[in-house]
Write a structure and sequence with these properties.
Strands 2-1-5-4-3 form a five-stranded antiparallel beta sheet, with helices on both faces. A five-stranded mixed beta sheet has the order 7-9-10-12-11, with helices on one face. The chain folds into three domains: 140 residues, PAS domain (Beta-Lactamase, 2-Layer Sandwich); 81 residues, Helix Hairpins (Orthogonal Bundle); 161 residues, Histidine kinase-like ATPase, C-terminal domain (Heat Shock Protein 90, 2-Layer Sandwich), CATH 3.30.565. The protein is an alpha+beta fold. Helix content is 43%, strand content 22%.
Length: 387
């Protein structure tokens, strides 16, 4: 036995650890078990553990919340694949834990269908003899972090193209203005030629539309500098309705405003918020073609972003338009995407930019023939102001 130990040492290894010499793990027993349960239950990370045969042995409240599950008394002992049947991507990761040599550490995974992003670490559970008897998963909701990172990436991309787009727009504006002026002068000189006048009128109209698109591009690439003050959402919505009526044809569309006056004041830019709701209304007017109803409602909610939650105001703009197919709905907030023959595709992109500047979120619910609801969530105060 002594010679075997020497040979192991010369080979660069260590003397094998027997079951007796292996240090025992400090698992709480007796009255400390309750403390252990409270510790796991109060963790701000999700925790779950399961046996080698895939049966759940531990799960805390944060895990239930992240997976959008409702706790049941008989959850412990159930197969993990049954508990997480709505999340097959997680089940696949858990089932592979006993077959891989290098366990994932700080990996990320997007949950379906919620779209949440989690960062997770897997570990093996061993008994005192070193035998693997199960596995554990520690994870955290990184959705908010992912949103902020995506926002930073978008801001970087916009900054990269912003200077170029602004330079091009300024260069294009001058020739457009020249075309409009010269066409106007020529139209006055040939008053006796109706056909030529009609043609010049069309040229002027096209030049004005092109100039409006250039102005919209300049507005989009220009950084938003918020003039922050205590702002009532109800006042911004009322101002938006009046402004939208001056920019687009409402027709017989009814706008039903259900925004309580007692909502918390937003730490935001009133002008930008008015622009946000104006763009949403104009977009709805154009989709509804002069008939139907638009409902603007608002209420107080709480944003969960990895902390204890922040007070916020949720504004929903619902129209009775034709709605959109899912493949189109996924792209409506992207710059320059439009389904309108003469649209610039920047209206909703500017809306998202304003929402991001206010540290808020925007979501869209739509289906063909069922109208569209756009949900804007605005925190009462920005995250950096609370830290």
């Amino acid at each position: 036995m002594r010679n075997a130990s020497r040979r192991a040492a010369r080979a660069g290894g260590r003397t094998p650890t027997t079951a007796r010499s292996r240090p025992r793990s400090s698992i709480p027993r007796g009255p400390h078990e309750a403390f252990f349960r409270y510790l796991v239950a109060g963790m701000r990370n999700g925790v779950l553990a399961f046996t080698r045969d895939g049966r759940l042995t531990l799960i805390n409240e944060e895990a239930y919340r992240i997976f959008d599950l409702r706790p049941r008394r008989d959850d412990l002992g159930r197969p993990v694949s049954e508990l997480l049947q709505q999340h097959p991507e997680v089940v696949r990761v858990l089932h592979s834990v006993f077959d891989v040599h290098l366990l994932p550490n700080r990996e990320e995974l997007r949950l379906r269908p919620s779209g949440k992003v989690i960062g997770y670490t897997l570990g093996l559970v061993r008994d005192d003899s070193g035998r693997v008897i199960g596995a554990s998963m520690y994870f955290k909701d990184l959705t908010r972090v992912e949103q902020l990172e995506e926002r930073d990436r978008l801001r970087d991309r916009l900054a990269a193209v912003g200077e170029m787009a602004a330079a091009i727009a300024h260069e294009v504006k001058n020739p457009l203005a020249g075309i409009e002026v010269m066409a106007g002068l020529l139209r006055r000189k040939i008053a006796g030629l109706p056909d030529a006048q009609a043609l010049l009128t069309d040229i002027i109209a096209e030049a004005k539309m092109a100039n409006a698109i250039v102005q919209e591009v300049l507005e989009f690439v220009r950084p938003i500098r918020l003039q922050v003050e205590h702002t009532a959402v109800s006042e911004a919505v009322q101002a938006a309705v009046q402004l939208a009526d001056t920019k687009a044809r409402r027709g017989d569309i009814t706008v039903d405003i259900r925004v309580p006056m007692g909502l918390p004041l937003i730490q935001g830019d009133r002008y930008q918020l008015t622009q946000l709701f104006t763009n949403l209304l104009i977009n709805a007017y154009e989709a509804m073609e002069g008939r139907g109803r638009i409902t603007i409602s608002a209420g107080e909610v709480s944003i969960y972003d990895g902390a204890d939650g922040r007070p916020a105001v949720l504004v929903e703009v619902t129209d009775e338009g034709p709605g959109m197919a899912p493949e189109l709905a996924e792209r409506v907030f992207k710059p320059f995407f439009t389904t309108k023959p003469q649209g610039s595709g920047l209206g909703l992109a500017i809306v998202r930019k304003i929402v991001d500047a206010h540290d808020g979120t925007i979501d869209l619910q739509t289906a063909p023939g069922r109208g569209t609801t756009i949900r804007v969530t605005l925190p009462v105060s920005a995250l950096h102001e609370e830290q």
